[in-house]
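FAQ: What does the model actually see?

It sees only this:
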Amino acid sequence: MQIEDIKVTQRSNPSQRIIALGIVFAFLYFASNIVITLLLAVLLAYFLDPVVGVLERIFIPRALGALLVLLAVTAIMAGIGYMVVNRADQFLDAWPRYSGILRHIATEFDTRISTVEKQVEAITPVEDRVKTPTRPVEPPPIRDWLFRGAGSLYSFVLVATFVPFLVFFMLAGKRRIWKATMGFFPDEDKERVQEALDQVNSMLRSFVAGNALIALILMLLSWAFFMEIHLDYPFLAGCVSGVMNLVPYLGAVLAWIPPFLIGMGQWSTIGPYLGTAAVITLMHVLGLNVLMPAIVGRRVHLNALSVTVALLFWGWLWGAIGLILAIPITAVIKVICDHADGWEPLGRWLGA
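And it is asked to produce this:
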């Protein structure tokens, strides 16, 4: 019997690629907790790896150095968290005063809306006035709130529990993991894979370190500004406002919320609100358009359109955490496309 050679082509057609992308996106959506935990661990590991490398050069074993670095980071985060929680408790103690102001503003707004509706109804012809039956809005069952809270708590516990272990294993076993990863690729592609991994390594480390530095600068500037204008709880407002300033495009508006909310109990005119909004917007422009390109822009080569699309997509897929991870994920995709046959046009489009 004659045996015929069968040639198998490895190039996929567009339909197969679309199906594969659909499967990947479905996995990212339904397994979001696992994927987000892994991505956060990878970013933190890239950020801490240089410190572990320094300890290794002074003859501290890599596993011990990774443990010491994690303990130091945990202590720093615990200290910052204690300070923030302490100020937050003070703010919550004074919350009844702020809630009363919020209710007064909401009542005033509803009154004005009702007045406008009555004026519109007065000039509307009688034949056009159709009374539509209104159904009372029923609050969602308590079990729905419990299920939502349980899901959020599960996500937080999953991240807080597994990220430190994942980071430790990634840092301690970096060489073994790197060598095992290179074993997945044939010898003729290892040089190109090595180059791509080096670019990803440099880009992620620069992105995380740059964002951490910019967040610290914006937090200190916001704290100093709020102390200068004698705003209550300046440290709490400065921390929250400084972190929110890092969100591209939306950060300039989101960073207004903490000082505006606290300022309602102190300000009676519109002047302080306008001045605070102007200063915070200036900080946002300084951080995102001056500091960010100078510190991170040399490594993350993405155009404005690709960044906007990435923020929309990953924000829709994963919510707030998606806005944080959108840029590094898209930058890694660009590096992969630049080094993968057939995907170079997409890489050029992302960085055009």
